[in-house]
């Protein structure tokens, strides 16, 4: 008999059967046009009026009645802790706190987007909206974790370090550092091959927003561990809220559009340091980077058809433009995996380096580039990219809305179930 705690022993199988069962139930419910019981209207707590100043987000707010449960006390303590912070955490973190607070107490963003000139409320709305369908409990936990990270970093960790080398607080799934004119955003879930969870998409959006405004010349995206990224974390499909799978797909499409939008709009030179294999969305957005440096160990794989899905990251436009329609079709329709050398020959990768000297060579190069006049680099990027921005946003919207439908298809659901069944050896 296998031991009870073996990786694929009975308890694990039961858990995975639960996940797969949940997916099937969600999909079946949709197929018969039914609704889950918990999606039926229940007593709605009064919505808290939006916080009107960015100065002290969330702190001015009272705990809504929706924030019930075991960690309610932790949540209240965290709100009190924020008032005691010695250092101003900065607007990015405040926006994140605000967004998590709203999500934890009210759920997904439910108010109309403020007008373009209402800058502060628009930024707050965008931060909240970017949380998509993140469950209230997760938002509450993330709020507590974020505050705890802020408290400990303001107490000790950043003391004594020069400003430029400080690790930015407030991120859990990425590590953001700035040094010598380069801001580095490192995907940090190496045990899961840097698969992108919903939280990670949101943190990357916030990190890019922060990097676009800091004083660095160049921004780098890279991965920790042996992978650059294995793309969308497929557990994003199992986290179905009570509102149902359609609502999840709708919110995920918004999240996807915001995520890709932050690459389209990024104003400074953006460099991918591809430290290992890249899959799915981590490959497609490379078409929106200014430089792509890859180790010769990297591979580039977009198995969309295998997953019952379709291209995103504007790749339906950038890939044919970069490599021609036939080569783009091989990757995007037929899921051909490219080696780093092949990706370089197709123009997706700028240069390939031997793995043994990859980090040294790339960072030496980037440090030299970061000393070039910043404004000239920004303006040059703007000239190159601005002509296509509108088009890219339109393509992004179209790809996201097609995927919203795809995620509800039996082809996609079956592919996701296969992944989990194989993982659980069902
Ligand atoms: C209802 C709608 C909701 C939709 C929400 C969508 C949000 C936006 C989506 C945007 C569209 C994006 C599309 C894509 O990116 S498509 C690509 C998706 N990625 C994959 O299909 C890769 C899946 N993973 C693998 O094939 C292999 O893990 C891989 C080849 C990457 C590595 O294999 P290897 O054998 O070397 O390592 P392991 O498989 O043992 O991996 C180690 C652990 O990491 C877990 N893992 C890795 N990648 C993922 C992933 N993408 N999603 C979830 N989990 C992943 C793997 O399961 C292992 O975990 P355990 O140690 O727990 O077993």
From TrEMBL:
Reactions listed under catalytic activity: (3E)-tetradecenoyl-CoA = (2E)-tetradecenoyl-CoA; a (3Z)-enoyl-CoA = a 4-saturated (2E)-enoyl-CoA; (2E)-tetradecenoyl-CoA = (3Z)-tetradecenoyl-CoA; (3E)-octenoyl-CoA = (2E)-octenoyl-CoA
Segments forming domain ACB: 71-156
Subcellular location: Mitochondrion; Peroxisome matrix
UniProt key word Isomerase: yes
Superkingdom of source: Eukaryota
Region listing for Disordered, in residue ranges: 150-169
InterPro entries named in the record: Acyl-CoA-binding_prot_CS (IPR022408), Acyl-CoA-binding_protein (IPR000582), Acyl-CoA-binding_sf (IPR035984), ClpP/crotonase-like_dom_sf (IPR029045), ECH/Chromodomain_protein (IPR051053), Enoyl-CoA_hydra/iso (IPR001753), Enoyl-CoA_hydra_C (IPR014748), FERM/acyl-CoA-bd_prot_sf (IPR014352)
Pfam families, per the entry: ACBP, ECH_1
EC number from the UniProt entry: 5.3.3.8
Pathway(s) the chain acts in: Lipid metabolism; fatty acid beta-oxidation
Alphabetized CDD domains for the sequence: ACBP (cd00435), crotonase-like (cd06558)
Keywords, alphabetical: Acetylation, Isomerase, Mitochondrion, Peroxisome, Phosphoprotein, Transit peptide
UniProt-listed SUPFAM superfamilies: Acyl-CoA binding protein (SSF47027), ClpP/crotonase (SSF52096)
GO CC term (a single one): peroxisomal matrix
Gene Ontology MF, one: fatty-acyl-CoA binding
Claim: Phosphoprotein is one of the keywords in the record: yes
Family according to the record: In the C-terminal section; belongs to the enoyl-CoA hydratase/isomerase family.
Cited function: Able to isomerize both 3-cis and 3-trans double bonds into the 2-trans form in a range of enoyl-CoA species. Has a preference for 3-trans substrates.
PANTHER family documented for this protein: ENOYL-COA DELTA ISOMERASE 2, PTHR43684
Name the UniProt record assigns to this protein: Enoyl-CoA delta isomerase 2
Species of the source: Neovison vison
């Amino acid at each position: 008999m296998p031991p009870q705690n073996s990786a694929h022993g009975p308890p694990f199988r039961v858990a995975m059967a639960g996940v797969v069962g949940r997916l099937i139930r969600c999909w079946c419910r949709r197929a018969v046009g039914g609704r889950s019981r918990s999606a039926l209207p229940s007593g709605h707590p009064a919505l808290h009026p939006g916080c009107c100043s960015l100065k002290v987000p969330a702190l001015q707010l009272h705990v809504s009645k929706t924030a019930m449960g075991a960690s309610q006390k932790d949540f209240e303590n965290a709100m009190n802790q924020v008032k005691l912070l010695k250092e101003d955490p900065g607007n990015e973190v405040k926006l994140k706190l605000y967004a998590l607070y709203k999500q934890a107490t009210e759920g997904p963003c439910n108010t109309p987007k403020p007008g373009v000139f209402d800058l502060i409320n628009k930024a707050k709305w965008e931060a909240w909206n970017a949380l998509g369908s993140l469950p209230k409990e997760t938002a509450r936990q993330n709020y507590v974790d974020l505050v705890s990270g802020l408290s400990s970093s303001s107490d000790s960790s950043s003391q004594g370090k020069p400003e430029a080398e400080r690790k930015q607080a407030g991120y859990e799934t990425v590590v953001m550092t700035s040094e010598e004119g380069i801001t580095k955003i490192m995907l940090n879930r190496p045990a899961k091959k840097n698969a992108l969870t919903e939280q990670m998409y949101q943190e990357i959006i916030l990190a890019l927003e922060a990097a676009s405004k800091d004083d660095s010349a160049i921004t780098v995206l890279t991965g920790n561990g042996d992978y650059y990224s294995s793309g969308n974390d497929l557990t994003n499909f199992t986290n179905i809220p009570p509102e149902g799978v359609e609502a999840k797909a709708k919110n995920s499409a918004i999240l996807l559009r915001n995520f890709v939008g932050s690459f389209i709009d990024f104003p400074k030179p953006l460099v991918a340091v591809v430290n290992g294999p890249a899959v799915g969305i981590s490959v497609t957005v490379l078409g929106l980077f200014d430089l792509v440096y890859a180790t010769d160990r990297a591979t580039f794989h977009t198995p969309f058809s295998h997953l019952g899905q379709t291209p995103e990251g504007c790749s339906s436009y950038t890939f044919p433009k970069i490599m021609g329609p036939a080569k783009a079709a091989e990757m995007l329709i037929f899921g051909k995996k490219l080696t780093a050398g092949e990706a370089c020959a197709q123009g997706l990768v700028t240069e390939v380096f031997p793995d043994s000297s990859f980090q040294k060579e790339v960072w030496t190069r980037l440090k030299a580039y970061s000393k070039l006049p910043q404004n000239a680099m920004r303006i040059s990027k703007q000239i190159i990219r601005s002509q296509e921005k509108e088009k890219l946003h339109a393509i992004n919207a179209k790809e996201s809305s097609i995927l919203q439908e795809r995620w509800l298809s039996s082809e996609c659901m079956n592919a996701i179930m296969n992944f989990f069944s194989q993982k659980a050896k069902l």
